[in-house]
Design brief:
Strands 1, 2, 6, 7, 8, 9 and 18 form a 7-stranded mixed β-sheet that branches. The chain has 3 domains: 248 residues, FAD/NAD(P)-binding domain, CATH 3.50.50.60; 66 residues, Translation factors (Elongation Factor Tu (Ef-tu), domain 3, Beta Barrel), CATH 2.40.30; 67 residues. Strand 8 and strand 9 form a beta hairpin. It is 30% helix and 25% strand. Helix 1 packs parallel to helix 6, helix 1 runs parallel beside helix 12 and helix 10 packs across helix 11. The protein is built from 12 helices and 18 strands. By secondary structure, it is α+β, with helices and mostly antiparallel strands. 48% of the residues are buried. Its cofactor is FAD. This is NAD(P)/FAD-dependent oxidoreductase. Keywords: FAD, Flavoprotein. Pfam families: HI0933_like (PF03486), HI0933_like_1st (PF22780).
Length: 407
């Protein structure tokens, strides 16, 4: 088998690699996959239900990729969410849209999405070799050579679609970063993204499993606020998760301080309301005076206790220091991050091949013509909700279009 020549070699049989390969017909295409079967990570997406994309146009989509929406936007314009839906529906996959805007196969089975991609590759006569990792990628006189255990394969174009480093058990172990660096590309230091956080002192652990809507979370580091995001929050047995945590985790680091606003009231407003309630109903217990805070009763009891307010304390007995701590707990509840969940639990990877060295309109390397980077190997990571898989399809579409033009 050694020495076989192809028009294009795709390294990685995830959603990006398979979709790119399927769109390269009539070129002769080889896909190399290190795992026993293709699409291992795709099959666990959305807990196996495969949140394949999200409702929205390219403009709204671009805002869901952290600081790198400008790079992804041309890809999203060329192949938007609506195109993804039409593509899979045309291949017999019925899709459903949740109230949240997330789009899933109606079967709620990732197998349907993977089967559609594999069928498309089969129709395009794509050759897929599994259990065959690429060991190195090189280029000489415009011809790329990919070394494997079965020998060296050559092609005029190579697509790196190896993913990032999240869920390494599915084959995403950062191989693409090594290949990129061998061509002089810069790799932005990767970190886990879309990851839960583990609290250093988890004082709300007894609320494990309870979620809260529209909670504001601010990230502080070295006494400075990094950013603030809002969304649904889930308390876990070890710390915090939910969309607001997952989407913000790309900016979080071990040791950061989170300030959680369980109440949507402003500090000054809430303080004034508490003082007025205590003055008007001083005989009532404190926790019974705080309905205006907009916090569920079970959480409220814990926040009152955390403020150092003894059980049975009435509004008339609430001291200034107690009230100050109570306001803080409701509007800036402090949580020190022991650590952000590692790659074994992170859904995505922040960091990757530097975007400055890749053409955002084609996903082609600026350093080595004919070399392409698509999907999560790039320094892009989307919010939870189908944005990362959509980026895989969109960048793959751009690369396939450019490769057909070149070859």
């Amino acid at each position: 088998m050694s020495g076989q020549e192809y028009d294009c070699i795709v390294v990685g049989a995830g959603p990006a690699g398979l979709f790119c390969a399927a769109n390269l017909s009539p070129l002769r295409v080889l896909v190399l996959e290190k795992m026993i079967l293709p699409g291992r990570k795709l099959l666990i997406a959305g807990s196996g239900q495969c949140n394949v994309t999200h409702v929205g146009d390219a403009r709204s989509f671009a805002s869901h990729y952290g600081d790198h929406g400008a790079f992804v936007k041309p890809a999203l314009m060329a192949f938007p969410s609506s195109a993804t839906r039409k593509y899979f529906e045309s291949r017999g996959v019925e899709l459903i849209e949740r109230e949240s805007g997330k789009v899933f196969p109606a079967s709620l089975s990732a197998d349907d999405i993977l089967d559609a991609l594999l069928d498309a590759c089969d129709e395009a006569n794509v050759e897929i070799l599994s259990s065959l990792p690429a060991e190195s990628v090189s280029c000489e006189n415009g011809v790329y050579r990919v070394k494997t255990a079965l020998g060296v394969f050559s092609a005029r174009a190579v697509v790196i679609a190896t993913g990032g480093k999240s869920y390494p058990q599915t084959g995403s172990t950062g191989d693409g970063f090594v290949f990129a660096e061998s061509f002089g590309h810069t790799t932005i230091e990767p970190h886990p993204s879309l990851s839960p956080v583990y609290a250093a002192d988890h004082r709300l652990s007894e609320l494990s499993g309870i979620s809260f809507a529209d909670v504001s979370v601010a990230i502080w580091r070295d006494g400075k606020k990094i950013l603030t995001r809002s969304g649904d929050l889930l308390i876990t047995r070890f710390g915090y998760s939910g969309p607001v945590i997952l989407d913000s985790s790309r900016w979080m680091r071990d040791g950061d301080l989170l300030k959680i606003a369980f109440s949507q009231k402003k500090i000054e407003e809430l303080d004034a309301l508490i003082r007025a309630a205590c003055a008007a109903s001083g005989a009532k217990q404190v926790q019974n005076l705080l309905s205006f805070a907009g916090v569920p009763e079970r959480l409220l009891r814990l926040l009152v206790r955390e403020a150092g307010v003894p059980d049975g304390t009435t509004g008339g007995q609430l001291t200034v220091s107690m009230r100050s701590m109570l306001v803080r707990n409701l509007t800036e509840y402090p949580v020190t991050i022991d650590h952000v969940g590692d790659y074994r639990v992170a859904m995505a990877t922040t960091g990757g091949v530097s975007l400055e060295e890749v053409n955002k309109k084609t996903c082609e390397s600026k350093l080595s013509p004919g070399l392409f980077f698509i999907g999560e190997v790039l320094d892009i990571d989307g919010d939870t909700g189908g944005y990362n898989i959509q980026a895989c399809f969109s960048t793959a579409f751009l690369a396939s279009k450019r490769i057909r033009e070149l070859l």
